[in-house]
Amino acid sequence: MKAHHVTLKDIARQLGVTVATVSRALKDYPDISPATKKAVLELATQLKYRPNPIALSLRASRSNVIGVVIPEIVHHFFSTVISGIMDVADQAGYSVMLCQTNESYQREVREAGTLLNSRVDGLLISLSNETEQYDHLQEFLDHGVPLVLFDKVCNELDVTKVIVDDYEGAFTIVEHLIMRGSDKIALMRGPTAASNSRLRLAGYAAALKKHGLPVREEYILECAGGVTYETGMRLTRQIMQLPDPPNAIFTVADPVAIGAITVLKQMGFHVPADVAVAGFSDWEMASVVEPALTSVYQPGFEMGQVSAMLLLEQIEMTQNGREIVPVTKTLPTKLMVRQSSARGGAAVPDMPGRV
Amino acid sequence: MKAHHVTLKDIARQLGVTVATVSRALKDYPDISPATKKAVLELATQLKYRPNPIALSLRASRSNVIGVVIPEIVHHFFSTVISGIMDVADQAGYSVMLCQTNESYQREVREAGTLLNSRVDGLLISLSNETEQYDHLQEFLDHGVPLVLFDKVCNELDVTKVIVDDYEGAFTIVEHLIMRGSDKIALMRGPTAASNSRLRLAGYAAALKKHGLPVREEYILECAGGVTYETGMRLTRQIMQLPDPPNAIFTVADPVAIGAITVLKQMGFHVPADVAVAGFSDWEMASVVEPALTSVYQPGFEMGQVSAMLLLEQIEMTQNGREIVPVTKTLPTKLMVRQSSARGGAAVPDMPGRV
DNA sequence: TTGAAAGCGCTAACAA
DNA sequence: TTGTTAGCGCTTTCAA
Q1: Do A94 and A151 form a contact (C-beta atoms < 8 A)?
Q2: Nearest Cβ partner of A73 from B82, B144, B353?
Q3: Which nucleotide is closest to the Cα of B19 by its C1'?
Q4: Which of A280, A347, A355 sits opposite B262 (nearest CB)?
């Protein structure tokens, strides 16, 4: 038989009082007799009373739910971010409604609409690659719902943003490669449209410039067709056939770097002695497991935590009627260098295994 | 200025009718004059009216939300499952509320409570390793809320379950190793408590038996201290020091296998010629990228889809007052063998890169 | 100290 | 064809 959720009414009836009294007793209202309060509290626990959050939401126009929208959940980076978000939200008593857009602008609009509609108290969103219009997000602001952009952000909206310091990360690692003795450094970059990809290019160029090295067009390749292992292999074969091939490769992400290392080894190069390989990484252990790789670690978990905390702060401010002042938080990357340049390990497993 | 969500009342007022009329017009009620229907529809679109799901939930005692509880989101496997769940849910017009337990029983109980409380229409859950009591799940059944267990399931609950065919997967791959010529096959297994780990052991033993090979105690190691790369390295060093070392290693997950391969190469073995390595894998490309690895692919995305579809079916049945008949769906694994045994690649990157 | 009543947004049975 | 009314579960103002 279907158990029924116990309500204030149930308690009230059994105690011969009104729901109002029960409600007040449950919330430690000042003017309530100790006797009834005690009775109510006891019966409530006995009956396992739990307030109905939906009724609360309807009344208060707030849901204790935050919405999260990301391009793809099957991504070490994004799943790590979400993990950080969920831990913070959970701690603060918020639930998380998650949507993925699969990089589709249309779906992003739809999901955002659903969330706004569901009266989420705030929204955390990482934009899809297709997104170039922001009305669906402006709507949140119009309705006074706080909004925090993370990772994939845009300039068009004056809201709080949390990003990784791509410029500085690229600068640091390129400088590191130069210090190590590389003077011909190739770049395998991401899509020209993406903001973080552009920042990385800038950091790369700045580091070269600082050390008096030229920015050579033929050393800059775009990872067309996916930021993948295969792309890394293809571009590496291509670039090593140049009359004057690079002695270092800086890539946009782990898989590309690993693809590059694979091909370089196949071609008989010693990595990193002959050709050094470095890459942005969302897995802190990447360079430990694959010593041939020097990586710039991007703190996903921290990004999730910080984004969620900023959002929760803003939600609270909104509820207290205070004005929100947008900030942009830039998280530092971490340079991960293996000291021993022992022979390359076998592989970069993604995460601890299941079971 | 805070925009206000437009309600039926707004439309009614502007049109000089009652909310009931508006409500009916919006839902294509039979008895409604074409004139008012048209007027209502027009004003509704103009004002961008969207029904308030919270009010609907309160009224109908259903939320169009499904709850998902998993141990850890930062896992290729689980994030893939979630992706499958979300795609199906989205298609069916459901939202997803996600919780992670971090393998804590206590947190699992808490999160389940919150979800039940939030009146989710159904629950998808993969149990934490600590979970041995099921009252928190029984509560869902008591309240008539459908429940589907996936991956980490238990026998104590008579509900629908979706699992991977671990027995058959292990059997198949061990037989494959035997066919390839290995006659001394080690097993690096998961926790003795986990049901899937036990099934894999059984499949392993059965394959050996079928081919007249002994099950040797010293060849069976438990991955204590985490199903990780490090564990794979440690156990491999250990097992290769046996007086009569194995010529094949079957592991419980990618990272362990990769750790094993790394160590074997370091020790000067040729993989897979001298020692073959195989492992359960949640990344379909693992054996493509690391040709030294033969893997048993576990279909995470499909698991998510199937689980979600079964849950949605049951939700519908519940709403139509029909009885739910629990089923157990066992998904086949896929043997991934690289034909060319060319030299091992460099690494197994986890997923397509970000950017 | 407690009750009565209104209202959050919506639907549906019953009247008109 | 449309209006009235009640109610989903809860909080809160106003009365008593």
Answers
A1: no
A2: B82
A3: C10
A4: A347
- pLDDT bin (cut points 50, 70, 90) of residue B75 is confident
Rg, C-alpha atoms of chain B: 26
SS3 B64: coil
B76 contacts on A by Cβ (under 8 Å) = 74, 76, 350-351
C-beta of residue A19 within 8 angstroms of C-beta of residue A12: yes
**Domain coordinates of chain A in residue numbers?**
8-50, 57-162+300-331, 166-298+334-345
Cross-chain residue pair B144–A96, CB shorter than 8 Å? no
Contacts of A144 in chain B (CB under 8 A): 2-3
Residues of A in contact with B114 (CB under 8 A): 95
Phi, psi of B335 (to 5 degrees): -80, 120
Task: For residue A119, give Cα distances in angstroms to B11, B19, B190.
Answer: 20, 21, 43
Residue of A nearest to B292 (CA): A346
Dihedral over alpha carbons A214, A216, A219, A223 (to 10 degrees)? 110
Yes or no: say if B267 and B261 are a contact pair by the CB < 8 Å rule. Answer: no
Task: Evaluate whether A112 touches A134 at the Cβ level (below 8 Å).
Answer: no
Asked if the Cβ–Cβ distance from B350 to A76 is below 8 Å, we say yes
Establish whether the CB of A47 is closer than 7 Å to any nucleic acid atom in strand D.
no
The tens place of each residue's pLDDT in chain A, 355 residues long, gives 577 899 999 999 999 999 999 999 998 887 888 889 999 999 999 999 999 999 999 999 889 999 999 999 998 899 999 999 999 999 999 999 999 999 999 999 999 999 998 899 999 999 998 899 999 999 999 999 999 999 989 999 999 999 999 999 999 999 999 999 999 999 999 888 777 888 999 999 999 999 999 999 999 999 988 888 889 999 999 999 999 999 999 998 888 998 899 899 889 999 889 999 999 988 776 776 677 788 899 999 999 999 999 999 999 999 888 889 999 999 999 998 765 433 334 344 444 555 5
Strand pairing report for B160-164 and A334-336? unpaired
Please give the torsion angle defined by the CA atoms of residues A240, A253, A328 and A113, in that order, rounded to the nearest 10 degrees: 120
CA of A117 to C1' of D5 (A): 28
d(CA A262, CA A336): 20
Protein-to-nucleotide distance from the CA of B90 to the C1' of C14, whole angstroms: 38
Specify the CATH number for B166-298+334-345; select among 3.40.50.2300, 3.40.50.300, 3.30.70.20, 3.30.230.80. Answer: 3.40.50.2300
Match domain A57-162+300-331 to its CATH number in 3.40.50.2300, 3.40.50.1000, 3.90.180.10, 3.40.50.300.
Answer: 3.40.50.2300
For residue A54, give the nearest of B50, B95, B119 by CB distance. Answer: B119
Would the CATH topology of B57-162+300-331 be identical to that of B166-298+334-345?
yes
| Phi and psi angles of residue A39, each rounded to the nearest 5 degrees, phi first | -60, -45
Residue of chain A nearest B289, judged by CA positions: A229
- For B8-50, which CATH superfamily applies? lambda repressor-like DNA-binding domains (1.10.260.40)
Residues of A in contact with B350 (CB under 8 A): 76, 254-255, 283, 348-351
Helical (H) or strand (E) element with B331? strand B328-331
| C-beta within 7 A of nucleic chain C, residues 244-273 of A | none
